[in-house]
Write a structure and sequence with these properties.
The chain is mainly beta and 128 residues long. It has one helix spanning 15-21, and strands at 5-13, 37-43, 46-53, 56-63, 67-71, 77-85, 88-93, 96-104, 107-114, 119-126. The protein has one domain: Lipocalin (Beta Barrel), CATH 2.40.128. It has a 10-stranded antiparallel β-sheet. Belongs to the calycin superfamily. Fatty-acid binding protein (FABP) family.
């Protein structure tokens, strides 16, 4: 299944617990409004991910297996290497693991999890 496409956030789980666990309590006031969109462009091992949320637009580009820098919605930038494992893309962002996973051809799950298994999950449906 190709990752390429546009997805819109349907639901999320674990926001408060995750933000508290990573010490970003100030972000708790910024609740997800359900209008967050993700666009993924895949060209071989090259990826461009655009996230639109609350007026913010983040563009992250990377090549599988190569050093890159990922910017988070919090504004933090973290150096990492993204690996592909079947229908999953995974990156270690310090003490956080970021995973993009296609559950089926129309459902994208983005998970941020701590070493203590506190997870923030965003479920999105393909819109294009």
């Amino acid at each position: 299944m190709p990752f390429s496409g546009k997805f819109e956030l349907e639901k999320y789980e674990g926001w408060e617990e995750f933000m508290t666990a990573i010490g970003h309590q100030e972000l708790l006031k910024k609740a997800n409004d359900g209008k967050t969109q993700f666009e993924i462009q895949e060209n071989g091992n090259d990826y461009c991910l655009t996230t639109r949320s609350g007026g913010k637009v983040l563009n992250n580009s990377f090549t599988i297996g190569q050093d890159t820098e990922i910017q988070m919605l919090s504004g933090d930038k973290v150096k990492t290497v993204v690996h592909k494992d079947g229908q999953k893309l995974k990156a270690a962002l310090g003490n956080i693991t970021l995973t993009w996973e296609l559950l089926d051809e129309n459902t994208l799950l983005i998970t941020l999890s701590t070493a203590d298994n506190v997870a923030y999950k965003r479920f999105s449906k393909r819109v294009a």
